[in-house]
Amino acid sequence: MPKKVDHQERRTSIADALMRVAADQGLEAVSLRHVAAEAGVSAGMVQHYFRTKDEMMTFALSVVRERSQIRVTEAVARLGENPPPRLLLRTMLAALLPLDDSTRDDGRVALAFLAYTAVRPSAAPGLHEDTAQFIGFIASVLPDGRGAAAAAGLLALMEGLGVYLLGGQYTAEQALGALDAHLDLLFG
Fold it and tell me: According to CATH, what is the number of the domain 7-187?
């Protein structure tokens, strides 16, 4: 009887290998050959699942997005029913920051993917929509109808803090302190 292969699991395994290569060596080191070696499979198998590097990168980006969404969902669930808006936003944004070893690798890969999509916008078709939805949600939670501009500023602050964390300019405590200070300004 032939062995059943879970194709989604295999694709995710290859995407995980891509993310390890990108986190360790940078996105420029990502190639079908390097990813295959990291995944312990043949280059032909990688090509069976992903015809091009862009296709592989797009799938890997979707895996990073999914992991981020899971972290946020789990963090918010721990707050219970109807958390105060400031606490809700802090929890969501903190869950997206690379504050520890487990989130730092995802953060490095996400940053590399953002740079990749800056020159290849077609590689991240859902990124614009996700950003617009997130800004809309943040705007709906901010007090006094502060609007999309304040929400975009808060999102940009979180992204900048992520870069500073990854670059070692900020510690987790400094980043969370800056986030709290900005939330204090927004929430009075």
Answer: 1.10.357.10
